[in-house]
């Protein structure tokens, strides 16, 4: 249980980080319980109820089709979570093995890392958009496109960490006593990567929210029938002067989710081994 | 110094060479016959065949790549399907807006991010520092297009102080006054990036403040303000300068969305429109140009970094 205490400690000492953690737990709970929490069907059209301001019946008002904004924001958590988990998993599953491999086999690894450098020379959203052009629009393709962007930073960070771990005395001692690569990775490298990668995962999760919202906003992300926060903003933007509240709540949902993730990432980073902290610092938008 | 410059330039060229292969294959990875990807669906079969031979699409892929590379080196990025004119001209038409937008945004980022970062670092741990750092992180978590939409609502639609969209060239009627069209977009674009530079300035100030020479300077009785500006800030700004490379990349990325919100005739909006129009040669050209720019800027940052801090050795 002491490991869990280590992770909780930074949150107990910093109220604002704790607030971020609680918001994230609430977002997860909302996504799971969306059918119970949403007062209306998020896709039900009601033309006679168009563009109503917030009221007791419709907390966040209604959109141009008379759909309940509150229910749509609630259902939006599902896609936000799906995108976040999808992008983080993609980045970890591809980036971590690439980083560890490159650190342990420097000859080939230098080439792999050069390839990562090449990918990093493409501006993030442009890289994602280029991939969307090739793959086509859709939720899973958006996850892959954004995932590739963060595969680069994740593998770079893993590489940097693994290189340092590789020269630790206990790792060298293990190898000189005949430990195999698999054993070294399992016993020495992976366990030490968990904390820094958790930090990285929370930042990637946050940036994935913003990137996915951008893709949705440009009409190149989730299909329009899915009530994602980005789609809500895209569809309602021309009504901003007539119904300014329409854009307020989906935008706040994105900002609060990303902000909470950044707070959590920051708190976890301060808890990291100082030698690892500078490696985990850089990320891109 | 010279070995360093040569080494860095060679590394950048190598990256560019590999990137060019990826960018070349972009057209071939799009589902469908690359000929129609390049020509659009409207081409007649005769036109198509003529172009197939002209573009050398009947040649082996390596030959195609080398031909494309030779054309690119000669400044020929192909033709836009939608505009029916060279991609280089289409990009040049959008360049004024994008360059001015990026420049004004960089001014905001520097004017807002650096001084506030210094203040936060000087008041480390105080409520002021916590508010500023918290606000910066909040700003970095807000979608730029959302900020842009509300800036339009407040300053254009409600107060009527500034135009809400479009940008007429400064070389047309209105002259430099047309820059006011870029005021709101540049603010929206600057918000998250200024926040990141603020956090970076603060962190780097705190790092440098721990150095021995700062303690020595203080012990010698140098005025605190002088220590902050001469000893800490000058060195802390090195890290900020090195961040300009990725700030530029972030600006390109976010300008795509910001230009769409404000209907600016720049390269960012051109990307989105070209995707919707299936004008693939334009997308390919823009990706190539931004990658080259990004590598050049990073090279310059690297070299200036070395020039600013001679302790950095060639690795």
Q: Give the topology string of chain A: H per helix, E per strand.
A: HHHHHHHHHHHH
Structural class of chain A: mainly alpha
Q: Gyration radius of chain A, to the nearest Å?
A: 22 Å
Gross geometry of chain A: elongated
How is the main sheet of chain B built?
none
Number of domains in the coordinates of chain B? 1
Secondary-structure-based class of chain B equals mainly alpha
Rough outline of chain B: globular
Average pLDDT taken over every residue of chain A: 87
Low-confidence stretches of chain A: none
Major β-sheet annotation of chain A: none
Distance between the termini of chain B: 12 Å
Quaternary structure: heterodimer
The helix tally of chain A amounts to 12
* Count of β-strands of chain A: 0
Q: What proportion of the residues of chain A is helical, as a percent range? A: over 70%
Radius of gyration of chain B, Cα only, in angstroms? Answer: 24 Å
Topology of chain B as a string of helices (H) and strands (E): HHHHHHHHHHHH
Distance between the termini of chain A: 36 Å
**Do you know the CATH architecture of chain B?**
Orthogonal Bundle
Report on this model:
The complex is a heterodimer of chains A (285) and B (315). Chain A has 285 residues and is an all-alpha fold. Chain A contains twelve helices and no strands. In chain A, helix 2 crosses helix 4, helix 4 runs parallel beside helix 11 and helix 5 packs across helix 7. Chain A is elongated and about 75 Å long. Chain B has 315 residues and is mainly alpha-helical. Chain B has a single domain, classed as MetI-like (MetI-like fold, Orthogonal Bundle), CATH 1.10.3720.10. The longest helix of chain B is centred in the last third of the chain and has 38 residues. The two termini of chain B are 12 Å apart. Chains A and B meet through helix 5, helix 6, helix 9 and helix 11 of A and helix 1, helix 6, helix 7, helix 10 and helix 11 of B.
């Amino acid at each position: 249980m002491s490991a869990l205490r280590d992770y909780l400690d930074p949150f107990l000492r910093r109220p604002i980080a704790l607030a971020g953690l609680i918001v994230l737990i609430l977002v997860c709970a909302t996504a799971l319980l969306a059918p119970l929490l949403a007062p209306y069907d998020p896709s039900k059209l009601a033309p006679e109820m168009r563009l109503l301001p917030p009221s007791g019946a419709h907390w966040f008002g209604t959109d141009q089709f008379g759909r309940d904004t509150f229910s749509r924001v609630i259902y939006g958590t599902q896609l936000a979570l799906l995108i976040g988990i999808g992008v983080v998993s993609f980045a970890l599953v591809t980036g971590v093995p690439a980083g560890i491999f490159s650190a342990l086999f420097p000859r080939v690894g230098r080439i792999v890392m050069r390839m990562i450098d090449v990918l990093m020379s493409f501006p993030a959203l442009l890289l994602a958009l280029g991939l969307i052009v090739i793959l086509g629009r859709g939720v899973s393709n958006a996850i892959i496109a954004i995932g590739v962007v963060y595969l680069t930073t994740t593998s770079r960070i893993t590489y940097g960490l693994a290189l340092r771990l590789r020269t630790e005395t206990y790792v060298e001692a293990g190898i000189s006593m005949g430990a195999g690569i698999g054993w070294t990775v399992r016993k020495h490298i992976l366990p030490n990567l968990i904390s820094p990668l958790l930090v990285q995962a929370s930042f990637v999760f946050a940036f994935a929210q913003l990137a996915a919202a951008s893709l949705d906003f440009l009409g190149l992300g989730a299909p329009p029938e899915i009530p994602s926060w980005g789609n809500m903003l895209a569809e309602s933007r021309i009504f901003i002067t007539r119904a300014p509240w329409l854009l307020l709540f989906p935008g706040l949902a994105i900002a609060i989710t990303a902000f909470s993730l950044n707070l959590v990432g920051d708190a976890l980073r301060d808890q990291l081994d100082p030698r690892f902290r500078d490696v985990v610092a850089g990320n891109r938008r | 110094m010279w070995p360093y410059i040569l080494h860095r330039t060679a590394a950048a060229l190598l990256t560019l060479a590999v990137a060019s292969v990826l960018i070349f294959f972009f057209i071939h990875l799009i589902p469908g016959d690359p000929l129609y990807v390049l020509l659009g669906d409207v081409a007649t079969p005769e036109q198509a065949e003529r172009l197939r031979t002209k573009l050398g699409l009947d040649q082996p892929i390596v030959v195609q790549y080398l031909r494309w590379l030779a054309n690119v080196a000669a400044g020929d990025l192909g033709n836009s399907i939608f505009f029916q004119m060279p991609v280089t001209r289409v990009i040049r038409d959008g360049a004024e807006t994008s360059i001015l937008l990026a420049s004004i945004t960089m001014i905001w980022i520097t004017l807002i991010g650096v001084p506030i970062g210094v203040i936060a670092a000087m008041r480390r741990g105080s409520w002021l520092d916590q508010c500023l750092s918290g606000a910066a992180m909040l700003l970095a978590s807000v979608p730029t297009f959302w900020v842009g939409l509300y800036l339009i609502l407040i300053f254009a639609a409600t107060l009527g102080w500034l135009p809400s969209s479009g940008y007429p060239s400064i070389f047309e009627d209105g002259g430099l006054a047309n820059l006011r069209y870029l005021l709101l977009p540049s603010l929206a674009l600057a918000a998250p990036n200024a926040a990141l530079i603020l956090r970076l300035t603060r962190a780097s100030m705190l790092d440098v403040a721990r150095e021995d020479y700062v303690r020595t300077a203080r012990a010698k009785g140098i005025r605190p303000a002088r220590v902050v500006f001469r000893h800490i800030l000058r060195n802390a700004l090195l890290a900020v300068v090195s961040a300009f490379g990725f700030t530029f990349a972030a600006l390109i990325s976010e300008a795509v969305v910001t230009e769409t919100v404000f209907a600016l005739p720049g390269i960012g909006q051109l990307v989105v429109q070209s995707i919707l129009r299936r004008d693939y040669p334009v997308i390919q050209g823009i990706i190539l140009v931004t990658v080259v720019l990004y590598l050049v800027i990073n090279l310059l940052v690297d070299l200036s970094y070395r020039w600013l801090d001679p302790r950095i050795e060639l690795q």
